[in-house]
Write a structure and sequence with these properties.
Layout (H helix, E strand, L loop, with lengths): L6 E2 L4 E7 L5 H20 L5 H16 L1 E10 L2 E8 L9 H18 L3 E8 L10 H10 L6 E8 L16 E5 L6 E9 L3 E3 L4 E11 L6 E8 L5 E6 L3 E6 L5 E8 L13 E9 L3 E7 L4 H11 L4 E7 L22 H7 L6 E5 L9 H12 L3 E5 L22 E7 L6 E2 L1 H5 L26 E5 L5 E5 L5 E8 L2 E6 L5 H4 L8 H12 L9 E7 L2 E7 L8 E4 L5 E4 L2 E4 L2 E7 L4 E6 L4 E6 L18 H6 L4 E3 L6 E4 L7 E2 L2 E4 L5 E10 L3 H20 L2
Parallel strand pairs: 4-5, 4-6, 6-7, 7-34, 9-15, 16-17, 16-18, 18-19, 19-25, 35-37
Antiparallel strand pairs: 1-2, 2-3, 3-38, 8-10, 10-13, 11-12, 11-14, 14-15, 20-22, 21-23, 23-24, 24-25, 26-27, 27-31, 28-29, 28-32, 30-31, 32-33, 36-37
Helix pairs in contact: 1-2, 2-12
Keywords: Membrane, Transmembrane, Transmembrane helix
InterPro entries: Class_I_gatase-like
Organism: Yoonia rosea
């Protein structure tokens, strides 16, 4: 069908003349040429009926061309105005929620007054991760769902802060911004510009901080900055505003150290969501310095030495008594191939350089004076760690317990020593303590009757004070491994010297290396080995909240959101001493957890998300895009605006008004095709014209 057409327009109906030739167009053109030639010949011969001949020829041509009238029944479609409302985190501060509601009501009322116009409202919230305000992505998705030919205008209700301008689509209509905020808004934020992920214990690391003021901020020279590590009471210092601050930090312990920085909320500032920052730095020990003091030689002495020397991160100083003072064999001292050990330097002057001191079957022989042992006691009370691996000598009159160290040791000997085989067992308390928790799972017994460990054959009977913790037991459930806290330090007592049997693989051996590793880490206060701890393992915006405790139950955990609201969570016991729950956080930011005994701080994403890097409303980024569509920027604080219809290509904004461009789109409801005249009518008309030509020419 050839739409060589003439079109007539109406409000709802339109007609088009179509030609649908019965023969190929080339043949039709040839016949038309013949008709023209015949008419020209008739004119040249001066035949009086030439015009009738011509009309008859054209009537035949019309019959062959098969003219029809196509009629369309069109239904007018309404224009669409898109309104994208920014409801991201930065739009929930100050009076912006009320401004959003005011703008929405204003636009809805104005669109209601426009004839044949619909409003499509799209809300933009916080997406996954820290993408910021994806305003152009929301516009692109909204445009993709609507016919472009019906879009009469796009209105953004936002603070103008967006983070995906590069994704702006081609806009088919004017773009307008109704901007939240007020001219006198201001905000203050804390920025941590650089922070290492790892740091060596005992060495200073420098963090760079900066306090920034934005907007119409009052003049302030300095503000108080509080610094807290692992939820401890904060230290407050005055810091200048608008300057980089170099802050030296020395980590207090190994493992993850959570440093929280916070400045107070000033009166009038927009939000305090960016007034705090959390930095997590993993404390790494450069070397673990261990002093091993061996007394009476025994098969386990080399095992202790080999275990400690096998770890490349351990610096071992081994003090062993090879020739006790009472040994009299007549050999001159100047002929002995022994080097005098620097006992005074080690036990008085440099004792605080050691992370752990191990006494392996040591007995009092006058080599270490009481003053040295008393200094070790003070070392523990001030934060040091001492491990006693005892043998029969611990129950004798020469026991190390009968020295100044006895004041801190977690077991008093009864002088009884049992020489019988037994399999070490984990106590009920030990099943909840991180030093021994799950040790039995490393050597499961197929019969299910305790762990599949080898036996030990010696146990020193001790009386354990009430404040100490017995985590392993031996013969007849007597204490085998006892732990205690003394002042700032920690002590441990192994009431047997047969742990080396596990290392040698006797009767299957046992987890001596893992037990020693856990003991050392607990005594050096590694956070992952603390028996009372609350921490969070984040995965995206999902928190796994974990509480470890020696108690049989634990209280609810109160989670404080970044905006100050609170959620109370109940934890369920998943293993002895370990309580957990999974919780989906509603947004990224800084969360605080508290169960009235332990506290924790966790930052999902950055503690001050991208949304809060710049909080003052600003249209600078959107201005070029809006100008390209001849749209306008209207502050909501200036009052309501009017919406007017403007022609395409004309300015679409002015003082107090914005414009939309009517599109006059339609939908074709029905199409009908009717022949202009029946074929017989064209033939009859041609015949009459030819007869008329014959009659006129016959009268001549």
């Amino acid at each position: 069908m050839c739409p060589i057409c003439l079109t007539g327009w109406g409000n709802e109906m339109t007609g088009t003349l179509l030609l649908d030739p019965l023969i190929p167009l080339l043949a039709l053109y040839a016949i038309a040429v013949l008709v023209v030639v015949a008419v020209a010949l008739a004119i040249w011969r001066r035949l009086p009926g030439w015009w009738l001949r011509g009309l008859a020829g054209f009537a035949l041509l019309a019959a062959i061309a098969n003219p029809s009238i196509q009629q369309e029944d069109r239904e007018p479609l309404s224009d669409i105005v898109l309104m994208v409302v920014d409801e991201s985190a930065s739009q929930r501060i100050g009076t912006r929620p009320e401004q959003n509601a005011q703008a929405i009501a204003n636009i809805e009322a104005e669109i209601e007054r426009q004839p044949n116009t619909e409003l499509r409202e799209v809300s933009l919230g916080d997406g996954e991760g820290d993408l910021g305000t994806t305003l152009m992505t929301a516009v692109s998705q909204a445009l993709a769902e609507e016919p472009q030919a019906r879009i009469a205008g796009i209105i953004l209700v936002s603070d103008g802060r967006l983070h995906d301008l590069e994704r702006a689509p081609a806009l088919p209509a004017p773009l307008h911004l109704l901007m939240t905020g007020a001219p006198d808004d201001w905000d203050r934020r804390l920025v941590v510009q650089n922070a290492p992920a790892f740091a060596i214990l005992g060495e200073e690391v420098n963090l760079t901080l900066r306090i920034e003021d934005q907007g119409a901020a009052p003049e302030t020279a300095s503000v108080p900055l509080s610094i807290s590590i692992d939820g401890e009471p904060p230290l407050t210092v005055q810091v200048p505003v608008g300057q980089d601050i170099q802050l030296p930090i020395t980590l207090p312990h190994g493992g993850m150290n959570v440093l929280q920085f916070e400045i107070p909320t000033a009166e009038g500032e927009l939000t305090n969501r960016n007034n705090a920052s959390v930095v997590q730095i993993n404390g790494v020990r450069d070397r673990l310095r261990v002093l091993l003091v061996s007394g009476e030689p025994h098969p386990g002495e080399r095992t202790w030495r080999n275990l400690l020397k096998s770890d490349s991160s351990v610096d071992l100083v081994h003090f062993t008594i090879l020739r006790p003072p009472e040994k009299q064999d007549g050999v001159p001292v100047n002929e002995l191939s022994l080097i005098a050990f620097p006992t005074r330097e080690l036990f008085l002057e440099k004792i605080n350089d050691f992370d752990l001191i191990i006494f392996d079957r040591y007995r009092r022989r006058g080599i270490l004076p009481s003053a040295y042992l008393d200094n070790i006691r003070s070392y523990v009370e001030q934060g040091g760690a001492v491990l006693i691996s005892s043998g029969p000598e611990y129950g004798s009159a020469e026991s190390i317990y009968r020295s100044p160290l006895g004041q801190i040791l977690p077991g008093a000997p009864t002088a009884r020593v049992f020489e019988e085989g037994f399999v070490p067992q984990i106590t009920d308390l030990g099943a909840r303590h991180p030093v021994t928790e799950g040790l039995d799972a490393l050597s499961p017994n197929p019969d299910g009757d305790g762990p599949r460990w080898g036996r030990w054959f010696r146990l020193v009977d001790v009386l354990v004070p009430q404040e100490a913790m017995t985590v392993m037991s031996g013969l007849d459930e007597r204490p085998l491994l006892t732990l205690n806290r003394v002042g700032e330090g920690r002590v441990a007592l192994m009431a047997s010297d047969h742990s080396w049997l596990w290392d040698r693989g006797y009767e299957g051996g046992g987890p001596q290396l893992e037990l020693l590793r856990r003991l050392a880490h607990w005594m050096m206060k590694e956070p992952e080995l603390e028996e009372e701890a609350l921490w969070v393992e984040p995965a995206g915006q999902t928190m796994r909240i974990i509480r470890r405790t020696l108690d049989l139950d634990t209280g609810d955990v109160v989670v404080t959101h970044p905006d100050g609201t609170e959620t109370t969570l109940r934890l369920e016991e998943v293993s002895p001493g370990r309580f957990e729950t999974l919780w989906n956080a509603p947004e990224i930011g800084l969360y605080r957890l508290d169960d009235r005994e332990e506290t924790a701080v966790i930052a999902l994403g950055p503690s001050a998300p991208r949304e809060f890097e710049q909080t003052i409303a600003d249209s600078t980024l959107l201005a070029p895009l809006i100008e390209s569509t001849r749209g306008g920027i209207m502050p909501i604080s200036a009052g309501d605006i009017d919406i007017r219809s403007v022609r395409e290509g004309r300015p679409a904004a002015g003082r107090g008004w914005i414009g939309i461009t009517p599109r006059e789109a339609f939908r074709t409801a029905e199409i009908s095709i009717t022949p202009l005249l029946p074929a017989w009518a064209f033939l009859l008309l041609a015949s009459l014209l030819m007869v008329g030509a014959w009659l006129r020419e016959g009268r001549r």
